[in-house]
Design a protein that fits this description.
By secondary structure, the protein is an alpha+beta fold. It folds into 3 domains: 1-62; 70-151, Immunoglobulins (Immunoglobulin-like); 169-458, PPM-type phosphatase domain (Phosphatase 2c, domain 1, 4-Layer Sandwich). Helices cover 32% and strands 25% of the residues. The chain has a 6-stranded antiparallel sheet with strand order 8-9-18-17-14-15. It has a 5-stranded antiparallel sheet with strand order 10-11-12-13-16, with helices on one face. It starts with a helix and ends with a strand. The relative contact order is 0.10.
Length: 459
């Protein structure tokens, strides 16, 4: 209190003297002065309390708070970390109504699922915990919801007036031997964005003597009429094998091949020769078609894979052919292993994708001999047989080596079962909806992968 009294005297230009010192001594023992001192000290503390409350609020307002961007159609969650402001309590956040987000003021978590891209100034309503009246103040923070990349792509229907038009999407589901088959072919986003047609195609056919065939083709994006090339390749090859004499010959040879303990190479060659003749017939037909239509063979460039399948007493036999980069894979019954049933024109066989329209593949001048494009496989049982174009292969497997890597396939099967970003599931027990479910599943997002997608599954 003495310093307090002396400070007042000093402020009033009263200097120390014998008289002044005696007066100060009396002031220090004065109850009235002590009361005044306590009152002023209390007022000083009150002022400082108010100052600190205002200071906390202003510091929080000035604090550079960055709320991470949200992504439209994706779940969002952000926890406000404001431990450096122990006296600040966020009461609510305004302007959330149109965003699809909510704020929990107990956990300080902002969460929800915004559906549209937007930018908004969020109003963070807060108060100081030391303020008995809990007077509200507002801090404004810029917040962004990024657009769903899918929404940036247009979906323009293709014109039915164009030459060799085909449906933008196609689906199929039916029995296949003693099993089921589902196929979906979806126009890629790059085509949809420009309003051009799908280049992929598929076909399947029930044949004589218990055989069935499924064919898948990926028309080259650089080819003017690839859409027609893939259609011809798949439908023609299926029709060619729909011949009783050809199929009977194949059945007899396959039975003989597996009758011996050690399968004979000459029988295998005979089987491949029968398949080869039909592939050559396809090539010849394509030549006739381009001549008649007055277009070039390159205009029809397309890959082609097919599988001829029959169930014998000794198991399933799968005869395969492939040109290009589309794989045929079978998953074993235990769902623990996978096998690639054809060679792909990628990797060590690369140098550019080969097409059924190329004469070089028939002269063994290609990446590998023509005979290596055929396969014969006996499997006692299997879980699923897959044929796919690179619209599926590229985003889901990336490189050829992963086509026989079980961990990649395990993830792929889980993906089809609904463990994906879109929660889209293909239910193999739902025979009515499965083809539409597969088509919907194929709408998955993969940055940089916007090609047509075709997937056939025998299950």
């Amino acid at each position: 209190m003495e310093k307090f009294v002396k400070k007042i005297l000093e402020n009033n230009n009263i200097t120390s003297s014998k008289v002044v010192d005696k007066v100060v001594s009396r002031l220090l023992t004065s109850a009235k002065v002590e009361e005044i001192y306590k009152s002023i000290s209390s007022l000083n503390n009150q002022v400082m309390d108010i100052f600190n409350k205002y200071k906390d609020s202003e510091e929080f307002k000035e604090y550079h708070l960055v709320i991470p961007n949200a992504n439209a159609k994706n779940e969002y969650s952000y926890s406000f970390e404001i431990s450096q402001f122990p006296n600040i309590k966020i009461k609510e956040i305004r302007s959330l109504d149109t965003l699809g987000l909510s704020f929990d003021n107990q956990t300080n978590i902002l969460s929800g699922k915004p559906m549209i891209a937007t930018q908004v100034e969020l109003q963070i309503v807060f108060y100081n915990k030391k303020d008995e009246n809990k007077n509200e103040e507002i801090k404004t923070v810029h917040f962004v919801v990024n657009a769903d990349p899918k929404d940036l792509w247009k979906n323009i229907p293709s014109s039915k007036d164009i030459r060799y038009w085909k449906e933008d999407d196609d689906v199929y589901a039916d029995d296949f031997l003693d099993r089921k088959i589902v196929i979906a072919s979806k126009r890629g986003r790059s085509h949809a964005h420009e309003g051009t047609t799908r280049d992929d195609h598929f076909a399947t056919q029930k044949l004589y003597d218990g055989w069935e065939i499924v064919a898948v083709a990926d028309g080259a994006g650089s080819a003017k009429f690839a859409r027609k090339g893939s259609e011809i390749a798949t439908t023609f090859i299926c029709d060619r094998f729909n011949n009783e004499n050809i199929i009977k010959s194949i059945s007899d040879l396959v039975a003989s091949f597996y009758k011996e303990e050690t399968p004979q190479p000459d029988i295998k060659s005979s089987i491949f020769n029968l398949l080869y003749k039909e592939v050559v017939s396809l090539y010849n037909y394509l030549n006739e078609f381009v001549s008649k239509e007055e277009i070039s063979m390159k205009d029809l460039n397309t890959t082609l894979i097919f599988a001829l399948v029959k169930k014998f007493e000794f198991g399933y036999v799968i005869l395969t052919f492939g040109v290009g980069d589309c794989p045929i894979c079978v998953v074993n019954e235990e769902k623990s292993e996978v096998k690639l049933l054809n060679k792909l024109d990628v990797g060590e066989y690369g140098g550019g994708t080969r097409f059924i329209t190329m004469s070089e593949i028939f002269t063994n001048q290609g990446a590998f001999p023509m005979s290596h494009r055929f396969g014969i496989h006996r499997i006692e049982n299997f879980s699923k047989l897959f044929l796919m174009t690179d619209g599926i292969y590229d985003p889901k497997f990336v490189v050829e080596s992963k086509l026989e890597y079980w961990d990649t396939w395990k993830n792929f099967l889980l993906d089809i079962d609904g463990q994906n970003e879109d929660k889209t599931k293909v239910d193999f027990t739902n025979e009515t909806e499965i083809k539409y479910q597969l088509l919907k599943w194929m709408d998955f997002w993969s940055k940089g992968n916007h090609d047509d997608r075709t997937l056939a599954i025998i299950y």
